[in-house]
Each structure stands twice: as structure tokens, then as C-alpha cells.
Write a structure and sequence with these properties.
- The protein has 13 helices and 10 strands.
- The longest helix has about 45 residues.
- The N terminus is likely disordered.
- It is α+β, with helices and mostly antiparallel strands and about 375 residues long.
- It has 4 domains: about 90 residues; about 110 residues, 2-Layer Sandwich (Beta-Lactamase); about 100 residues, 2-Layer Sandwich (Beta-Lactamase), CATH 3.30.450; about 40 residues, no CATH class.
- β3 and β4 form a beta hairpin.
- Helix content is about 50%, strand content about 20%.
- α2 packs antiparallel against α3.
- The protein has a 5-stranded antiparallel beta sheet with strand order 2-1-5-4-3, sandwiched between helices. It has a 5-stranded antiparallel beta sheet with strand order 7-6-10-9-8, with helices on both faces.
Length: about 375
């Protein structure tokens, strides 16, 4: 016969009487033998023959051994019983599921019976729920009661409500999260006559989810606070999986549009800034470590801008991911271009100035030569000639 869900989730307590049966039988057997021996024992030891005395002594020794065996058996039984009680206690404490059954008459819930496992989950015994029909409704967290009541209403109306997760307040005032799943029972005419509620304690899972969500929120806040665009992509398909706020602002797109951007959609598109060169940089980062380079990127509007791109590979969860950081360096590139132009202009001016100075020296030399030929002194003093 298969085990019912109620029995599986609420294990039976070990029976003390069952564990004591072998010991009680041994004790009764020893007592009967002792009475029989006493009835056969002569009234006075003086009347015993040596053979009777030896036989009686032997029987007493046998009784002594039997009693010692009974004591040892009793000791082992008591140890096993204590171990069973400890094991039962641990199982009860570890139970995070139990079943309650609601009987339905004419579309109305008329009686609810909670399984013994309710103690481990709620802190209340099944008889406490039986004596107080409103107890379950009161231990549901006030904020979650409308959802719980709606789930029951839909079940009684003939629907099939999905499981819900809600909070309860245990008897010790501690809050627990549970998952409540309804399983309907119908009669031959298809009328709802009862439904089982499977209660699963999911507190540990919910707390883990809250910790993970808090961690994600913290990381998102940190990433959104930077002015650099950051996005995470699948290196195999090139599909963008997540972006920060600065990425949307830099490329002029929404979060959804960023996730829908096809591979190569952020590039200028022509060599050396096409998708082929982008893939080459990705492979370089995969095999040789993080890579940084300048890139001509494209916004959603089609306008181009200079960017400094950094690519690194990492493992997120169990999957390999590519993390790309983009810094807009348009102003820096403009400053570099302006500085380059200034250098070019300065060099051109310097050439003009130096050429003029050389011509002036040559003219001065020619004038001095003419004056010397006319017998007159030099008019200009040329320093390189005096050295």
C-alpha cells in the first residue's frame, strides 16, 4: 500500500509499547519459570538430597543468567528508545511541509483539519487549530491576507488558483514565508467536496533571494553612478544581456532598445571599426586578458563619437560573459586635434620667421660689402662675423 502524503509529511512517533514487547515477554517467561521452580522446591532445605540441592543451585544460576540477559535487553531497548525519540524530534524540527484539509459543503468551507506537521511550521499544534477555526486566518500576515482570501475564494468558486507565497506569524512571533498550494477533491458528480492545502516553509529560500536582490540592487546602484557605459554580452552570440544607465545615455537609447541592439550595431561599421575588428579584439581579450583600445562608435541617431573601449571576460553564475566598458573621449580627441593644429601652425610660423631672419642677415652683409667697397665703415654689426 502506498504511503499517503499526510503520513509522508507527518511521520508517526515511535511506539514505546512496540519497543518494549520483547522485554516484557522475557520478563513474564522468567517469572513463570521462577514460580514453577518455587512450587517444586522442597519446603525445607534440610530435606533436600544432594542431587536436589545441586539441581536447585543450577536452576538458580540459570535464572540469574536469564535476569542478566533481560537487564541487558532492557538497557538496549531503553537506549534505542531514547535514540528514536531524538531522531523523531530532529525529523519534526526539520519538517518544512505539511498538509491541511478543508471540507466543503455547498460551496462553503465548513471544517479545516491541520496535520501534525503544522507544529514545526507554525508553532501551533493541530488541536489548537481544531479548537480555534479562525486561528489560521489570524496568523497570516495582515498585508498578505487579501491574497490568501482571494485564493480560497477562487477555489470555492470552482476555479484552480495558482500557488501563492505569503507570510505567517509563528506562535513565537517570528515571521515565516510559506508557499500555499491547493489540490481540489471532487465527488462523482464533479462537485468540490474538499481541498488540500500543501504548506511549504520557504523562509530560507526567500531570505536567500532577498540577499541576492539586495546585492544586485547595490551593484546596479554602483554601476549606474559611473559616467562610463558598461554592458554585459554573450561572447558567443554577441547579444547584449544587461546595461547600466550611462550606456543608455551615451548611446541615446532606452534599456529595452539597448538589449535589442544587434551585434555590430554600436560600431561605425567600416574598417578598421567594423564588426570583424570588434570580434578580433574580443578574441584577443579572451586569450590574452583584458584589452583597451580607441574605437569609433555610433549612437542610435547614427552620429559617431570616439570612445575608449575596455573588454574583459568573466564568469557570471555558470556562464562565460564579456564585460565591456566604454568611455566617451570625444572632447579629448578634439583637444588632441586642436593641439596638433597648433603645433602645425607654430612650425609653419617658425619656418617663416627663421627664413626672414636669414634673409635679413644676408642683406646686412651685402650692404656692409658695398660700404667697404666705397671706403666707408660697416653700418651693421653681424655677430657671427665678430666671433
Amino acid at each position: 500500500m502506498s504511503e499517503s502524503p499526510q503520513t509522508a509529511m507527518n511521520p508517526p512517533r515511535p511506539s514505546v509499547e512496540a519497543t518494549m514487547v520483547p522485554t516484557a515477554a522475557l520478563r513474564r517467561q522468567a517469572e513463570a519459570q521462577a514460580l514453577a521452580h518455587a512450587a517444586r522446591m522442597p519446603l525445607a532445605l534440610a530435606t533436600m538430597s544432594p542431587e536436589e540441592a545441586r539441581r536447585t543451585l543450577h536452576e538458580l544460576r540459570v535464572h540469574q543468567i536469564q535476569l542478566e540477559m533481560q537487564n541487558e535487553e532492557l538497557r538496549r531497548t531503553q537506549v534505542a528508545l531514547r535514540q528514536s525519540e531524538v531522531r523523531y524530534q530532529r525529523i519534526t524540527e526539520a519538517i518544512t511541509d505539511y498538509i491541511y484539509t478543508v471540507r466543503v459543503v455547498a460551496g462553503r468551507a465548513v471544517h479545516a483539519a491541520h496535520g501534525p506537521g503544522c507544529l514545526a511550521v507554525t508553532g501551533y499544534r493541530d488541536d489548537e487549530f481544531a479548537h480555534d477555526p479562525q486561528l489560521w486566518g489570524r496568523i497570516v500576515a495582515e498585508e498578505d491576507r487579501p491574497a490568501v482570501e482571494e485564493q480560497a475564494r477562487r477555489m470555492l468558486a470552482g476555479g484552480k488558483p495558482p500557488p501563492i507565497e505569503h507570510r505567517i506569524i509563528r506562535k513565537n512571533a517570528m515571521e515565516r514565508w510559506v508557499r500555499n498550494t491547493f489540490v481540489p477533491r471532487y465527488d462523482e458528480q464533479g462537485e468540490l467536496v474538499a481541498y488540500d492545502g500543501l504548506i511549504q516553509d520557504i523562509t530560507v529560500r526567500r531570505h536567500a533571494e532577498e540577499v541576492r536582490q539586495a546585492s544586485r540592487d547595490y551593484l546596479k546602484t554602483v554601476l549606474d553612478s559611473t559616467t562610463d557605459a558598461i554592458y554585459v554580452a554573450d561572447p558567443e552570440s554577441g547579444r547584449i544581456l544587461d546595461v547600466n544607465r550611462s550606456m543608455c545615455e551615451m548611446y541615446g537609447c532606452s534599456y529595452t532598445e539597448a538589449l535589442r541592439t544587434p551585434p555590430g550595431g554600436l560600431n561605425q561599421g567600416e574598417p578598421p571599426y567594423s564588426q570583424a575588428e570588434a570580434v578580433a579584439w574580443q578574441e584577443q581579450a579572451r586569450c590574452c586578458g583584458p584589452q583597451s583600445f580607441e574605437w569609433l562608435a555610433k549612437r542610435k541617431t547614427g552620429t559617431l563619437f570616439w570612445a575608449e573601449v575596455s573588454i574583459r571576460f568573466t564568469t557570471l553564475g555558470a556562464a562565460e560573459r564579456m564585460v565591456v566598458t566604454v568611455r566617451d573621449i570625444s572632447e579629448r580627441k578634439q583637444a588632441e586635434e586642436a593641439l596638433k593644429e597648433k603645433y602645425t601652425e607654430l612650425e609653419r610660423f617658425n619656418k617663416v620667421t627663421v627664413g626672414r631672419e636669414v634673409r635679413m642677415i644676408e642683406l646686412k652683409r651685402e650692404i656692409n660689402a658695398l660700404l667697404k667697397a666705397a671706403g666707408q665703415p660697416d653700418k651693421y654689426r653681424i655677430f657671427d662675423e665678430q666671433e
